[in-house]
Amino acid sequence: MKWLLLVLAGTVLCTFGDYLHARQGVLAYHHPFWSLQAIWVPPEFAIATLAALMGARRFVRGQPPASMLRVVTDGAWFMGAYAYTSFAEPSHANVTLAALAVAWALHVIAQRRSPGTIVWCVVLAICGCLAEGTLSRTGAFWYVYPDVYGVPRWLPGIYLHAGIATASMAAWLQPSVEQRAERLVDA
């Protein structure tokens, strides 16, 4: 049930963030269906959320479970980064990337995030940008001001924040120490 809740939340949040991008002219779709977005956008974000959760689990294994408050807070940081890029001036892409990177670094330091989470954030930033660039090359959608491989240079900054959010989500899915102990006793 937790998995379904998280995939649904990720789908809704990412679809809304993408809507902001489409509405503000950051990106466009070849065949918009509803609210300037293609019909395949929500299913794409459901798959992306599920894949990110599965990936993040490998990097947070052994960490204590996250609270729901942490999951919500980290999701809000992610949505803040998404919204910021919707309204940022396209000619200031370096400033946008720097602001996202500094906010991410401060978030990581303030929460004393593990090295595994930091590595996960970087892995997700690389993979996410490559996936979006590859998808944009099909012509299904495009960024209005791309810089590298069909994506804007600030895009990794959003994925860094997505990395923290998905790491918290994955940590929330982990069993507590007590639940792990019970499994050992029952075995």
Helix/sheet category:
mainly alpha
Indicate the radius of gyration in whole angstroms. Answer: 17 Å
Shape: globular
Assembly classification: single chain
Fold blueprint:
Elements: H1 2-23, E1 27-29, H2 41-60, H3 68-87, H4 93-110, H5 115-137, E2 141-143, H6 155-173, H7 177-186
Antiparallel strand pairs: 1-2
Structure commentary:
Helix content is 71%, strand content 3%. With 187 residues, the protein is mainly alpha-helical. A two-stranded antiparallel ribbon has the order 1-2. It contains seven helices and two strands. Helix 5 packs across helix 6.
Defining traits:
187 residues, mainly alpha, two-stranded antiparallel ribbon, 7 helices
Task: Write a compact overview of the structure shown.
The protein has 187 residues and is mostly helical. The protein has seven helices and two strands. The protein has one domain (2-186).
